[in-house]
Every structure is written in C-alpha cells, then in structure tokens.
Amino acid sequence: MRKTNPTRRYRVKATVQMLELTKSGSSMEFEIYGSAGKVGTIIIGRGSLTWIGSHKQKKKRIDWTRFAKLMEARP
Q1: Element (H or E) spanning 72, and its range?
Q2: What is the value of pTM for the model shown?
Q3: What CA–CA distances, in Å, run from 57 to 9, 31, 41, 69?
C-alpha cells in the first residue's frame, strides 16, 4: 500500500500529446490538483506556455521570451 506524504500539497497528472515537441500542435499538459480539487492546467507547447485556471473560460498564453523574463524577475 502506498503511503501518503502529509506535507505534499499538490498532485500533478501529465499528458503528452506527441513525444516530439518540435512539430506544430504537439504539447504536454499538466493538470494540477490541490486538497480542494483541481487548481488548473498548464499546457507546454513549442511556442508558448498556457495556463487555464480550474473554473476559467479564458486561457492565459505566455510566449517563452516573456516567461523567461517573468522567472528572472522573481527573487
């Protein structure tokens, strides 16, 4: 039987659309779950990263250059 880690806060389920991310339309999708249910989905593709919140209708798309700047700006 698998023991649960009491300090673990999130669970992630991954789906790969295509093994080679160099082709258009291929992506990796990560569904993130917390203790209260689904937090959201991150879709990583060739041209960008997309965030979809758990109850959101709109997708937030960030290209890789902008994503790099956001990550470098964080402490």
Answers
A1: helix 64-73
A2: 0.69
A3: 25, 16, 12, 26
Local mean pLDDT, 10-residue blocks, the chain (75 residues): 66 75 72 91 88 85 92 82
Instruction: Find out whether 40 and 54 touch, Cβ atoms under 8 Å.
Output: yes
The one-character DSSP state at 22 is: T
Query: Residue ranges of the domains in the chain?
Result: 11-73
What integer pLDDT is reported at residue 58 of this predicted model?
82
Report CA 5 to chain centroid distance, whole Å.
22
Burial of 57 (0-12, 13-18, 19+ CB in 10 A): exposed
How far apart are the C-alpha atoms of 16 and 44, rounded to whole Å? 10
- Three-point CA angle 32, 33, 35, nearest 5°: 155
